[in-house]
Amino acid sequence: xxxxxxxxxxxxxxxxxxxxxxxxxxxxxxxxxxxxxxxxxxxxxxxxxxxxxxxxxxxxxxxxxxxxxxxxxxxxxxxxxxxxxxxxxxxxxxxxxxxxxxxxxxxxxxxxxxxxxxxxxxxxxxxxxxxxxxxxxxxxxxxxxxxxxxxxxxxxxxxxxxxxxxxxxxxxxxxxxxxxxxxxxxxxxxxxxxxxxxxxxxxxxxxxxxxxxxxxxxxxxxxxxxxxxxxxxxxxxxxxxxxxxxxxxxxxxxxxxxxxxxxxxxxxxxxxxxxxxxxxxxxxxxxxxxxxxxxxxxxxxxxxxxxxxxxxxxxxxxxxxxxxxxxxxxxxxxxxxxxxxxxxxxxxxxxxxxxxxxxxxxxxxxxxxxxxxxxxxxxxxxxxxxxxxxxxxxxxxxxxxxxxxxxxxxxxxxxxxxxxxxxxxxxxxxxxxxxxxxxxxxxxxxxxxxxxxxxxxxxxxxxxxxxxxxxxxxxxxxxxxxxxxxxxxxxxxx
Length: 494
Fold this sequence. Notes:
The protein is 35% helix and 17% strand. With 494 residues, the protein is α+β, with helices and mostly antiparallel strands. The radius of gyration is 35 Å and the shape is globular. The chain is built from 15 helices and 18 strands. The protein has a six-stranded mixed β-sheet.
């Protein structure tokens, strides 16, 4: 027995129902005229059935789309099922005109421009009206899609603008406290920040990804470890994330430690690659003079634990460093390690090679230069963790000890460097003047320090137009999941 599908458009009052047709056909009192009328009506109904089998597919797909986008929500029309066939019992739900729905519908219905015209004049009018409404809806959909594409383009860094200059003008620095974790758990925030500020260079400290190299073999600190299943999975995840926008607009360099510790990375916009003179990974001044050659080496020299990357441009150099922590303990090896690092960085920054052009020393420098760079100077001055250091100058919070601050000041003076943030923001800012925030639970709650810097050559200072800290308060606002917040600097073209 044939089943009749009720069309989406409301049937004309003159059209008989299926029950009426059966009654007319089986009635013993029916006249030849009435049988002829029933046959004509039945023929019309059968034509409608055929049309429902062809044209009715469209509203069923639209209903399926509406159900998928608004499952369980208002406006989803109820349906009855008889023998496996759907039968609409209410008016179709209102269309979802959101951009996502428009894209979904375009994939499903593929740009219809016409509908089959029924023979019946009254139903033809209703069909034409439905077709006009469909065309109007598709025009709105097309407009929504165009707007979405414009918005999507606007959410990515404007590459045309970036290519207008031949040197980095907007630079971001951030201690990620594990780039892998940030991309797993805070990717949306990070992507939003990068799209908003559109940095030409992204300098990252504390990458915390192990360097490549099998046990007993030389390390390749420029490559991610991949000799175990977990390492391969993590490498693939990181590479997949960096292959999508906005990271895909950047070339990445790594300097990694043997284990998931320390490490740095530099990301440079691809539009500026032609202006890059060299990349080096060592605080050996000779790496600058032979920088162009060093890029061709398979295994360039790196600092221990991957703590430095230098990008050399015709008009300036960018040195990204992750300075070792000074430590607390009485006999900790951290004290001599930090003294050695401070001496090494001072010799590098004061070398003739390093001073041959303007330089920006940036990153997590693990020092708070003055009392204005900590929220509670007395707390940090007397902080302890176990037996205090033998040298009184090493006592206190790492980064705020007398010895660290003294060595930092001497390096800045001898290298003719100035603190860009403090130059532009000379007064203490208790809300947004710190880049590191202590654990919100325990004795470090509300305790914050400024340990991330842009230290610029004096002759570069006139070009600095802005230097900002993007975190606020001790609840981690703007920290993108890390215990450090991003900082940025903006230069005017040379």
